[in-house]
Amino acid sequence: MFLRSFALILAVLFSSSFFVLGATIQGSAYDQSLTLLNNTVIMLNTTPEQRVVSVDGIYSFDVPKGKYFLKAMYTDGSRTLNTEKNIVISAEGEYTFDLILIPGQAPVPADQLNITLKTNETAVPEPQQGSSFFLWILILLCLLAVGGYLWYRFRWRLRSQEPIIKSEQELELEDLVKFMKLQGGRVYQKDVKKAFPQWSEAKVSLMLSQLEAQGRLKKIKKGRANILLLQS
Q1: Which of 13, 131, 142, 173 is deepest in the core (most CB within 10 A)?
Q2: What number does CATH give the domain 169-230?
């Protein structure tokens, strides 16, 4: 149960980490009369640089947080329009930047732009170095946490399987209790000495005192003899 919950937490952490790092820049390219410009070249200075030929005049880029320089260029052989814009992406979400292109420099040949018209190929930006470092640290911490938990469970299981070794004194007390149970739970102290001749009087008295202190035995004086009653 714990491992399932832990795996769910890891999945949420990783998914949230990747989504928080990304944002979308989108918009359309127009001329001064607000006519949508087809086959507009739009560039964004990510690493590597993203460059797309927008066939329908609409563009979209996926980027991490940061400061960027957005540039658009349109040429139809008779005129050249362009525009530039500095933008700041401070959080995740969608950012719309519509671009109005105005007359600029002379037309630039397509081969110098290193693009092929009527394509929509977009370079995927490399993750920022700081973001990758954060993700690697997060992964390392999670692996350490899982490894520590598994090691703890392994050690706990080993300890639970270790045999319980009883001392000689505990075994002797058990033998005494078994003897009293066989006698119906009521015996004279002198009968204990007869049943265990290897035990001295002092040892028998000490063992009876231990059982009495544990609440397992009750001693009743009857004349000069002691009657021992085993407590349930």
Answers
A1: 173
A2: 1.10.10.10
